[in-house]
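forwarding from the other thread:

> can someone predict this with iron/sulfur cluster?

sure thing
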Amino acid sequence: MITDKEKIKDIAQHGDFITGIHQYCDGWCERCAFTTQCLTFALETGDPDENESRDINNKAFWDQLAETFKAVSDQLREAMEAYDIDFDESEIQLPDMNDHMDDEIARCHECCRAARIYGEHVDSWFHQARDLFGEEDIPIDPGMEMAAAAHVEANDRLQEGLDVVRWYQHQIYVKLMRAVRSELVEARDGIDEFAKDSEGSAKVALIGIERSIAAWEDVRNHFPVMQDKVGELQGRLQRLSVKVEKAFPDARAFIRPGFDKIPLNG
Ligand code: SF4
């Protein structure tokens, strides 16, 4: 992060930046499609980023993952309906507001609890799957190790999927905690305008959930032996997504600076 005032001023004046774009991003600059328009990125690196091809490649990466999500989300919904899993399994209820209890209230919120548990399950999945990745801790069946190594080397997509899963594993929880805390403050302060921070934060969480579901699909395709476990994690995410949409019904409509287009007809 640069500190020289003149340099900061120079960068800010000469870049074509989108105001506030960093406020509702996922912080994954390496994978961001807007580095060339982000002042925060420019200040972090010391120069306005002119690597437009990276932005284009990153956009293509996320577009492809979005396609995967579309395909897998219907399948997940159908599977859960077939198993009679109720998406709205319990009512969302915020406890009474209390100035000094926001963190505790947020931690107890159904969405945050579910996101935290998901994160724990992901850790446990990686722990169970470590022999598939050729990690050291437990004895590995040599045949399995070779097969797994071939999988990993054969397709960068698997590694990318795992990177996506890891990036959002805890971020979903963090964003939901912020969404609930902000909602408490907004309710206390009587803020009832459009574009509330609670909605923006919930939207970022929803995007992380969807990207994770899609990324898990790539992982699932590589490790048929782990299909059930991965499917269970995708199911958790799908149910979490429904809970978040119910708790923050306007989150989808939130316009994130730079990332979302303002609807032409309001
Ligand atoms: S908008 Fe993109 S480049 Fe800027 S801070 Fe967020 S992730 Fe990084």
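The chain has two domains: 5-50, 65-250. thats all i got for now
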